[in-house]
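Sorry to interrupt, but I need a hand with the structure work. Could you write out one complete protein record for me, on any chain you like? Could you add the entry underneath, on a fresh line?
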Amino acid sequence: MPTDSDKNESNEGYVQLNGRTVFLVDVRDPEEFDAGHIEGAINIPYTRLHFLKEKLPTDKDMPIYTYCASGIRSMMAGAYLGDWGYCVFDLGTLEKAQAQFSSQSNLTPKGTLAQHKL
């Protein structure tokens, strides 16, 4: 889990994948996120990524996994995050990301995690 010095004190985005803590970012727009997302993911829209850097882990060794609707925004977000020194894994689409997390997390139905919206 995040360290005490991590700026994201709410633990949003920190999930388990294969027994390892990773940071899961849904880079879709808030409306898309509200329609359904992987439980535990944090919504940091690609278009606002630069402005919401404080939501990212301070530990650059924390693996960051990204996903979106088509894979394009997650790929572009991954490029930025990589430039900022993070270790990034682009999961592509929500469906591909859901398959990776299917045994551990579920797609959250619309409206149940509105508090996670930025």
About this structure: Residues 72-83 form the longest helix (12 residues).
